[in-house]
Amino acid sequence: MQTIEIRLNGETIQLPQNCTAQQLVDMLDLSEQRIAMEVNQEILPRSLYAQHQFSGGEVVEVVRAIGGGAN
């Protein structure tokens, strides 16, 4: 199986070639979480996760939304 390297939250990781953003979310066990994903400094809408295939060298940030705050 061929792989590619991306930077995920500052760390280099290997992904299968043709891995989609949705597959990455599933691998990270974040499917049920409220998250935001940025690819190369641009927000990737959740509606495009299944369509976006990563290319080697992309920089990806995934953050979880945390509720709460002052009343």
Features:
five-stranded mixed sheet; 71 residues; mainly beta; 37% strand; globular; Ubiquitin-like (UB roll); 1 helix; 5 strands
Describe the 3D structure.
The longest helix is centred in the middle third of the chain and has 7 residues, at 21-27. By secondary structure, this protein is mostly beta strands. A five-stranded mixed beta sheet has the order 2-1-5-3-4, with no helix packed on it. It has one domain (3-64): Ubiquitin-like (UB roll) (Roll), CATH 3.10.20. The relative contact order is 0.29. It is 10% helix and 37% strand.
What's the helix and strand layout?
Elements: E1 3-8, E2 11-16, H1 21-27, E3 35-39, E4 42-44, E5 59-64
Parallel strand pairs: 1-5
Antiparallel strand pairs: 1-2, 3-4, 3-5
Q: Provide the succession of SSEs.
A: EEHEEE
Q: Could you give a short account of the major beta sheet? A: 5 strands, mixed
Mean pLDDT: 94
Total number of helical segments?
A: 1
Strand % is 35-45%
> In CATH, what is the class?
Alpha Beta
Number of separate domains? 1
CATH topology: Ubiquitin-like (UB roll)
Low-confidence stretches: none
Count every beta strand, where a strand is a DSSP E run of 2 or more residues.
5
What is the CATH homology-level superfamily? Answer: Beta-grasp domain
Class by helix and strand content? Answer: mainly beta
Radius of gyration: 13 Å
Globally, the shape reads: globular
CATH architecture: Roll
Helix content range: under 10%
The CA-CA distance between the termini, in Å, is 51 Å
> Order of strands across the biggest sheet?
2-1-5-3-4
